[in-house]
Fold each of these.
Amino acid sequence: MNVASIDPRMGSDIVAEELEDLKQRIIANMQNAKAVATGNTIRSLHVIRWPFGATLESQQRMPFGVLETGRRGGNVPQPVIHGVPVGFAAIIYRWMQAKGIHATDVPKPKNPWMVSTISDQERADRSLSFAIATSIMKKGTRLYQDGGRDTIYTKEIPVTIERVQKRLGMLVQAIVVEQIQATIPTR
């Protein structure tokens, strides 16, 4: 490797490659933990390259840490999708649909003569989503109540840091060796 041919972006490439590998391990961990419903979080993960570095970012509105900590109880900010406010129960309803979760006890309407625009099953599912959302707002998710986990990304980050340090160290060592060899006169 000629010192003159060493591009400073080589270090950036190493970081980007390792972050791409980290992203794949995080995705595999999410799938193994059954922490994937719609796939939006997975699709939101991107390695962004910079001239002299790279970052792994989630472009999801939800804080990424919730994958390991769960959501604590408390007020829920009302998200906006395409300019329309969407309630927490609606988010839970979409999550239920993505996971294939349905209410098993489908009650008949209290007023059978009323015409409904939705099926009895959908009404029961929406009712269940409201109950789940209310429970989460009061008590937090089961993951939060159980103390969370560290199996999605926490254990993967030190591995990635070690690999980046090792690879960058090897690159710097090669540069230093070449520079020393270039200064030694040949006979």
Amino acid sequence: MADGKVVLGTAEAKIGEMSWPIAVIQREEHDGTRWYYIEEESVRIEGRNGVKSMPREDFGIVADLIFAGSEILLGK
């Protein structure tokens, strides 16, 4: 979400070459549906409990941590 695109991964848990732009993601969470709107500098999250906004870069930081953790688990 930080880059406003979704990147396909490989079977080896690596970042792939192909990507698609995204503007919104809809997810079913434990407390209902949430919509993540990708805006210029932030991601706006709307759900049953209200609206929140977070910097896009925060999603990039978390994605990097998840990717690093998957490499450790897979022994890469």
